[in-house]
Amino acid sequence: MSEQFLQRVFFILAIIGLTLFASHMIIISYRDLQEIGVFEVSSSPRAMPRLSPRRQRFTPTPSDVDLIQGWMTIAYINRMYGLPADYLKTQLNLTNPKYPNIVIEDIAKQKKMTTNALVEQLKQRVAQHLEARVKTPL
Questions:
Q1: Which H/E stretch holds residue 35?
Q2: Which of 106, 112, 122 minimizes the C-alpha distance to 71?
Q3: How many CA atoms lie within 13 A of 121 on its CB side?
Q4: Which helix (H) or strand (E) holds 132?
Q5: Which residues pair with 87 in a beta bridge?
Q6: pLDDT at 27
Q7: pTM score > 0.90 for this model?
């Protein structure tokens, strides 16, 4: 057998091996997604898997503010808690042009305060907004 033939065989075997490995990983990921409820599992063997509708929508309460952490951006917090776009900008007197896409840790550095202190201020402001929303529903 020639060296070129052996190289081709090795190349083909490597491609087959990589394909099998990738297929295995996709199947494992798919099963994990089924377990957590992303896909509906049908009893019919011919049925195609469908994305499950969200079972519950996250409705934040004032006690949920403990989820706020220093790595989060203001945009993330606004989305998570359903805050008006400029609410935290006004409450914290933020002037950074990157608002709302700025990380809490960076705001703390600019304000020359600890991240934990700023996170506590954010928690208070967000909780106040959520409490006001509960008192005056839409």
A1: helix 3-35
A2: 106
A3: 19
A4: helix 115-135
A5: none
A6: 85
A7: no
Look up residue 90 and give its two tokens. Answer: 């006004």
Model confidence over 76-120: pLDDT tens digits? 999 888 899 899 999 989 888 888 899 999 999 999 999 999 999
Tokens of 102: 């700025």
**What pLDDT is attached to residue 108?**
93
- Identify whether the C-beta of residue 108 lies closer than 8 Å to the C-beta of residue 70: yes
Beta strands (DSSP E) in the chain are: 39-40, 50-51
> What's the CA gap between 56 and 83, in Å, rounded?
20
> How is residue 97 written in tokens?
């042009």
Query: Which candidate, 98, 73, 78, places its Cα nearest to that of 88?
Result: 78
